[in-house]
Amino acid sequence: MPKKVEIAYSYDPQQGHAGLTAELKILDPKLIGKEATFTIKRFVKVKDSRPVNKSKDLFKHKFTACSETETINIPPHVLHERPFGYNGTKIKIRCFGKLTINDRLIRKDTSTEKDLPTVSLKKPKITRSTKKLIDPKDVFSFTKNLMAIPAHNKLATLCLLVIGAVIMVVNMMIGIHDEFSPRYATYLYSQVNSDGESSSPIVKALFGCGAIGVAIWLAIKRQLRQYMTFRFKPITGLIDRGTERNVSDLIQGISRTNLKDVTLRIVACNLEKGKYVRGSGSNRRTVSFSVPKRGVLLYSKDVKLIPKNQPVEQYFLDPVSFEPMFKALYPPNIVSKSHGLFVYWEVQLIHNEFVDQELEGDTTQFKVDDFFTA
């Protein structure tokens, strides 16, 4: 079947971000005079059997197809975002133009798509385990950590343990009751799902206990981190490939107890973000994911002892360069807060007796164009 419409791009690098035009070709004379829409989209496809995909319109132009060729000047802001294609483990990102013509005669729109002309990014191969780098196993002594935090945090931790245990026991008792009671006498968990199929209240209660347990444990770890203060100092200026800062200029902190055999690391990575669906009926839920990729170690130093009440930063006076991050990571390619390719970096203070400290860095100060440089 012959094509009815086509898209062709032309780009003049001398005009910078204002140099892209789209030539829309109407090959079928019957389409002349029809209402049309040309849209440039950034689209995230989630690689899953039940994906939740997401797209973002970067530009939209509605017009009437008055001739065989329509030329559209793409606004500078579209190229200013430097859209590019990405094919990762969990997501695939396309940036493309779509021409749609409202063909009422056949009651179906005529449309075509074509990827934007984008740069080819060549990044080095990363062999290290990104998950272990970004999310190292947190080994600590609960008793020692509990004794090192202030009294009100101790009390909050113990209360969370008791409350969490009580809630989970009560939740399981309700699940058991609802499992063996007549349908009209259940308290919380139905014996059927939204599709009218049989469903086990005990299984639902187990899932509920799991969610409660995770939430309580995260709250407890927040309390256990109070053995010290640890935060970023204000970071001024733009961070680019040539930026080099002393670690002591980035962080500050004081511990209430001696810290022995401490490791401080600065790490960075890309994050592939998206959503997918799991379950069915009343158990249907949307799951968000954030998968670290291409981990980069920017700085690491071991210290035998940091005495209590001493500024932590004075033990890390060394410089750190951000150049390896710009060389290894792909630029951000974002559709929404939940979908796309992100740049992430953090400072980690790792200790085998106490809960690790983590500071998530601000990425808005990065010079994005430097990620495109080989």
Question: Could you characterize what this model shows?
Answer:
The longest helix is centred in the middle third of the chain and has 30 residues, at 151-180. This protein has 374 residues and is α+β, with helices and mostly antiparallel strands. The chain folds into 3 domains: 5-115, Immunoglobulin-like (Sandwich), CATH 2.60.40; 130-142 and 227-371, no CATH class; 151-226. Helices cover 21% and strands 37% of the residues. The chain is flat, with a radius of gyration of 27 Å. It has 6 helices and 18 strands. The model has no long low-confidence stretch (mean pLDDT 91). Strands 4, 13, 14, 16, 17 and 18 form a 6-stranded antiparallel beta sheet that branches. Strands 3, 5, 7, 8 and 9 form a 5-stranded antiparallel beta sheet that branches. The protein has a 3-stranded antiparallel beta sheet with strand order 1-2-6, with no helix packed on it. A hairpin with a 3-residue loop joins strand 7 and strand 8. It has helices spanning 76-80, 130-134, 142-148, 151-180, 201-224, 323-328, and strands spanning 5-11, 20-26, 35-46, 51-52, 54-64, 69-73, 86-87, 91-101, 110-115, 228-232, 244-246, 251-255, 259-278, 285-306, 319-321, 333-334, 340-350, 357-360.
Number of domains: 3
Distance between the termini: 43 Å
Could you report the average pLDDT, rounded to the nearest whole number?
91
- Estimated structural class: alpha+beta
Total of helices: 6
The radius of gyration computed from the alpha-carbon positions, rounded to a whole number of angstroms, is 27 Å
What share of the residues lie within helices?
10-25%
The count of strands amounts to: 18
Shape estimate? flat
Fraction of residues in β-strands: 35-45%
In this structure, how is the largest beta sheet organized?
A: 6 strands, antiparallel
